[in-house]
Design brief:
single chain, alpha+beta, DNA primase, PRIM domain, Alpha-Beta Plaits, 2 domains, six-stranded antiparallel β-sheet, five-stranded mixed β-sheet, 18 strands
C-alpha cells in the first residue's frame, strides 16, 4: 500500500509529510505525527542550537523497536531548499573524503528531518567554518551509579570550571546521564578544548577516585561516573538540547536549573529523565535555560603552561 502523503507549506517551503499515524514509540502509543508536532512546538528554542552546525541524525524508520541507522549525508530526494555543507570527513568508515551534511537553519528543514523518522539529532561542538564554541562534559554513569550520582559530579565539575572563569549549563541526556555545556571563545582548536577537558576530568578523578573515572575502559566504570572528555574531539557529536531520544517512551534531552541538579544530587527530588510532554510544559516557566550558549564565552586557560 502506498504511503499516505500530505502536502504542506511551511514558511514558504513546500514539502510532503507521510505516515503520520505510524507508531514511533509503540510502547507509549506515540506516532510520527506526534514526533513532528513535538519538534514543531520546541523549534523556537531548538533551532538556534542547531543553526550552523552539521547535523547527524539517528533514524528509526520503523520506530524505536525496529532497526536504526546513523545518517550524516544528505539522503536522496533532499529538497533543493535544504542547506547543505560539504565538509571533510577524515577517517570515514566508508572511505569518503567529504560528506554533504544537512544544516537545520529553519523550521521547514526541521520538519522535513522529523518526517524522515530522525528521532535523535546530534551536533558537533563547532559551527561550519569555525573552531569549537562549546566545551561539553558528558557524564556517563556505570551501574549501579545513575543520574543522581551524575548530578553530584556535575556540581563538582561546575565548581571546578568556575575556578577558570567558565560557566556550565546542565541538561539531561534523555537516556542515562547528563551533559554540561560550556560556552567558550571560538578561537581555540578542538585539540586544545579536548586537552583541557581531559585535564580537568583527570583532576576530579584523582580527587574522588571512588566515584569518578576519566578512563575510557569499560572495566573501570561500574559504580562510577565516567567523565567523557573525548566528546570535544572535532569528529564527535553530542545529542542536541531538546532532541528526542530513542527510549521505550519519548524522553528528551532537557535543560535543568542548578537548583534542580542539586535537589537530584541530594535526593530531595527524584533523579530522572523527562518526557517530551514534560519538557514542553517546562518551556513556559523556564524558557531556554541554555540561551547563554548562543553567545561567545571566554578562552580556555592553557593548563599545559601552568
Amino acid at each position: 500500500m502506498a504511503a499516505e502523503r500530505f502536502p504542506v507549506q511551511i514558511e514558504g517551503r513546500d514539502l510532503e509529510l507521510s505516515n503520520l499515524d505510524k507508531l514511533m514509540y509503540p510502547g507509549a502509543g506515540f506516532t510520527k505525527g506526534e514526533v513532528i508536532d513535538y519538534y514543531t512546538r520546541v523549534a523556537p528554542l531548538l533551532l538556534p542550537h542547531l543553526e550552523g552546525r552539521a547535523l547527524t541524525r539517528i533514524r528509526y524508520p520503523n520506530g524505536v523497536d525496529g532497526a536504526h541507522f546513523f545518517e550524516k549525508n544528505a539522503p536522496g530526494g533532499t529538497p533543493s531548499w535544504v542547506r547543505l555543507e560539504t565538509l571533510p570527513v577524515p577517517g570515514s568508515t566508508k572511505s569518503r573524503e567529504t560528506i554533504d551534511f544537512v544544516v537545520v537553519d529553519e523550521l521547514a528543514t526541521l520538519v522535513w528531518v522529523a518526517n524522515l523518522a530522525s528521532l535523535e539529532l546530534h551536533t558537533p561542538q563547532w559551527r561550519v567554518g569555525s573552531d569549537p564554541d562549546l566545551l561539553v562534559v558528558d557524564l556517563d554513569p556505570g551501574a549501579p551509579a545513575a543520574l543522581q550520582e551524575c548530578c553530584a559530579v556535575a556540581m563538582l565539575m561546575r565548581d571546578r570550571l568556575s575556578e577558570d572563569g567558565l560557566r556550565a549549563y546542565p541538561k539531561t541526556s534523555g537516556k542515562k546521564g547528563m551533559q554540561l555545556c560550556v560556552p567558550i571563545s571560538a578561537r581555540q582548536n578542538a585539540e586544545i578544548v579536548t586537552g583541557y577537558a581531559k585535564r580537568v576530568a583527570e583532576e576530579l578523578s584523582a580527587r574522588v577516585p571512588g566515584s569518578i573515572t576519566a578512563k575510557m575502559a569499560r572495566a573501570v566504570r561500574p559504580g562510577k561516573v565516567f567523565i567523557d572528555w573525548s566528546q570535544n574531539a572535532a569528529a564527535k557529536t553530542t545529542v542536541a538540547p531538546y532532541s528526542l531520544r530513542a527510549q521505550p517512551s519519548p524522553t528528551a534531552s532537557t535543560p535543568l536549573t542548578w537548583d534542580e541538579v542539586e535537589a537530584m544530587a541530594t535526593g530531595a527530588s527524584p533523579a530522572r529523565q523527562f518526557s517530551a510532554g514534560e519538557l514542553l510544559s517546562r518551556l513556559s516557566t523556564h524558557g531556554d535555560l541554555l540561551a547563554d550558549l548562543l553567545s561567545p564565552g571566554p578562552l580556555l586557560p592553557d593548563l599545559l603552561a601552568s
